[in-house]
Amino acid sequence: MQKNTQNFGDSHTTKPTSLKNALLEIKDSSEHSTITLGSLIHQLGSKGFGVLLAILALPSALPIPAPGYSTPFGIAISLVALQIFAGRKTVWLPKQLHSIQFGQKLTNKMLTVATNFLNKIEKLIRPRYRFFKNVWIMRVIALQIVLLALLMVLPIPMTNTIPAMIIFLTAIGISENDGLICLISSLLSIIAIIFYLLLLFILSKVGSEAIQLFV
Q1: CA–CA separation, 199 vs 208, rounded Å?
Q2: Which residues contact 163 (CB under 8 A, 6 or more apart)?
Q3: What is the dihedral of CA 57, 145, 147, 201, to 10 degrees?
Q4: What ranges do the domains of the chain cover?
Q5: d(CA 178, CA 186)
Q6: Which of 27, 83, 94, 151 has fewest C-beta within 10 Å?
Q7: Cα–Cα dist 35/13, whole Å
């Protein structure tokens, strides 16, 4: 009897494009036409999970003003993470989200910052600790991403940037098959989720005026 030891992403026989190269390809495409979420999904194809998570997290993760992105992208991130949990091999999002556009100026800025960051850390990134791509571990990571994405939707200060940064770090680990980065991001996810649960508890006890303490 064959044991069910398949890892997430094992069905792909071709070597995946690195996250940095995928972001550069998207940046080149955005210089010629406006990128929509639907066209991005079509462009990424089967390698879309990690790259798409990175793209969706970037507007909130980077120190670039991007109002209005956190809620729709937080919802999209949670849907992508749920598909990782379900073991899907390609990304699906509702057609209502396909029309979301990435502003050309914002796209150029956030991809430039992201690729520069990846240039600085690429020597530290490599395939390792591959047991982290096990289906069950990926399901735990997917649930953590869902919780972080839901935090992005909350209209509370500081619930955008930090969760988005952790999701972006997780996306690096998934895209580059780097289990160590997945481990680090998973630990950061747990810390962040506990912190925000405590914050929400305080707000529920003290009231909305407590938000002023965090502004």
Answers
A1: 11
A2: 60, 148, 149, 151, 152, 192, 196
A3: -80
A4: 19-214
A5: 12
A6: 94
A7: 28
Angle between helices 135-153 and 70-86 (to 10 degrees): 160
Of 73, 80, 40, whose CA–CA distance to 59 is shortest?
Answer: 73
pLDDT digits (tens, 9 = 90+) for 64-114: 655 667 788 888 899 999 999 998 887 888 887 888 777 777 778 888 888
> Do residues 98 and 41 touch, judged by C-beta distance below 8 A?
yes
d(CA 59, CA 54): 9
134 φ/ψ sector (left φ>0, alpha ψ -120 to 50, else beta): beta
Of 41 and 147, the one with more pLDDT = 147
Residue 15: pLDDT band with limits 50, 70, 90 = very low
- On the 0-12 / 13-18 / 19+ scale of CB atoms within 10 A, 180 is middle
pTM check: above 0.85: no
